[in-house]
Specification:
This protein has about 250 residues and is of the alpha/beta class. β9, α8 and β10 form a beta-alpha-beta unit.
Length: about 250
């Protein structure tokens, strides 16, 4: 059977960890490298429900998009949420691997998957892989485009700024907006699709006449789980892989 380290090395080849942003925390977050792996659970986030699910499945490894440890820790106790999760992983002998921004910018990562879901046949990669730019097949009214984004991502609600016709789109998964992206959208007449837009960026977009569609973070990244399951089926066929039933939108 493969070990945690065997699977880790296969991920490194496909989604180089050097591609992660400097603030990120990817790779093996918790667990023993030499632990044999028979079952893997894939989830967007490591939560108490996901850990319990892994325990019930008998999974030795959770592969998540968002890392269970994001910022530096000085202690692991039950006095913090991260500490509670780490203690649960350790006590149940479950390892945790995170593939975060290194997966977002990968050739078949979240940004490429998002662009295709929004109707891109071809796209240009922007912002070092953390955004794409593409043209729709035909002009769409902003209301119709927003409705199509909502349907494509399985959203129940969605926010937007601006009106008019949409032809060019800039899309970035997760919290992908930046001032430079807003100015590029203004210059190119593009509508931006991204999540977790802070007030100052929303105000900036509105003030500069940039159209913006804001789905939830979850809906712009949920394809991570089935994509990783497909990857493991090809690269670690002797391991049983499951997509977590708790891979859900917290706002849904």
């Amino acid at each position: 059977m493969p070990t945690v380290n065997t699977i880790l090395e296969r991920f490194k080849e496909a989604y180089p960890f050097e591609g992660a942003l400097s603030f990120d925390n990817v790779g093996l977050i918790c667990g023993r490298k030499d632990r044999e792996v028979r079952k893997v659970l894939v989830a967007l986030d490591v939560t108490s429900a996901v850990i319990q699910e892994a325990k019930e499945l008998g999974a030795e490894l959770i592969v998540s998009h968002h890392p269970v440890v994001f910022r530096e820790l000085k202690k692991v106790t039950d006095e913090s949420y991260t500490g509670l999760l780490l203690l649960s992983l350790i006590e149940n002998g479950i390892a945790s691997i995170a593939l975060h921004t290194n997966f977002d910018c990968a050739e078949e990562g979240n940004n490429a998957l998002l662009a295709r879901k929004l109707g891109a046949k071809e796209f240009t990669v922007l912002e070092d892989g953390f955004a794409t730019e593409f043209d729709l097949e035909k002009d769409e009214d902003m209301e119709d485009f927003t409705a199509r984004v909502k349907a494509a991502l399985g959203e129940t609600a969605i926010r937007k700024i601006g009106s008019g016709k949409v032809k060019k789109v800039i899309a970035s998964c997760g919290a992908g907006i930046s001032e430079s992206l807003i100015f590029r959208a203004r210059e190119n007449g593009a509508a931006i699709v991204t999540a977790d837009v802070k007030h100052n960026y929303a105000e900036m977009a509105k003030d500069l006449g940039v159209r913006l569609v804001e789905p939830t973070h979850y809906s712009s990244e949920w394809e991570f789980a089935p994509e990783i399951k497909k990857f493991l089926a090809e690269k670690a066929a002797d391991v049983a892989c499951f997509v977590s039933r708790h891979n859900t939108n917290p706002y849904g």
